[in-house]
Amino acid sequence: MPKLKTSKELMKFLGGLKGQLKKNAKDIILVDGGNIFSVDLFAISVIHRSLLLIAGFCLLIKKSNFLSAAPIIRLYLDTLLQFYALSIVKDPNEFAMKKLNGKQTNNLKDRDGNKMTDGYLLSQIAKEKEFEWVENVYKETSKFIHFIDKHILSACTKIKANGVVTFCLSDKIDTPKSAEREAIITMIAITNGLLTYLFCNGWVFTKNNPYSIKKNK
């Protein structure tokens, strides 16, 4: 990622990644003579969800609604974990079919027989150097899912020593630029992670090189 300083520049870069996701969707459909597998359907749905989450996140950031934008990061990270699970199961197409039939990932097992709970998936993907950050992001963004101090204190704009509290009820919230930038950078990191598992040595490569897969079995 190029050195981008402002939230506006980062948002523009994130928006540009949507084009790469769409290209991946096209590649998934066209490779291997247009044959469609259950993983293809799963991958396309992951891309579709990603595009919607990025669009929603960007809209909320532009509207100064960080409290609503932050949980989207958690949802997006879940999307990455779901697709990462494909890389650690014995039969990706069987896994994808079970997901398409409504099975929960935490009730399914990886190739070594371990249940793929969120905690397990986080611990496994975090072993990869480029994803060491995922566990902390999961922990911090989960705080925005539940009604805790971050939500309660967001309505308080000033608390004086004498106990007088000033409230501000609005559909906007003042957020430190550093927090906003960090959130956008995290969305970019998740998108790059998805692009890795979708394309770079991911499903598109696997589908386009079936001989190499059979050779390695």
Give a summary of the structure in a few sentences.
With 217 residues, this protein is mainly α.
Write out key terms for the chains shown.
217 residues, mainly alpha, two-stranded antiparallel sheet, 62% helix
SSE arrangement:
Blueprint: H1 7-30, H2 38-62, H3 66-85, H4 92-100, H5 118-125, H6 134-142, H7 149-152, E1 156-159, E2 165-167, H8 177-198, H9 203-208, H10 210-216
Antiparallel strand pairs: 1-2
Plain-language structure description:
The structure is a single chain. The protein has 217 residues and is mainly α. It has one domain (7-145, 173-216). 62% of the residues lie in helices and 3% in strands. The protein has helices at 7-30, 38-62, 66-85, 92-100, 118-125, 134-142, 149-152, 177-198, 203-208, 210-216, and strands spanning 156-159, 165-167. The chain has a two-stranded antiparallel sheet with strand order 1-2. Helix 3 crosses helix 6. The longest helix has 25 residues, at 38-62. The two termini are 35 Å apart. Mean pLDDT is 84; it is low at 212-217.
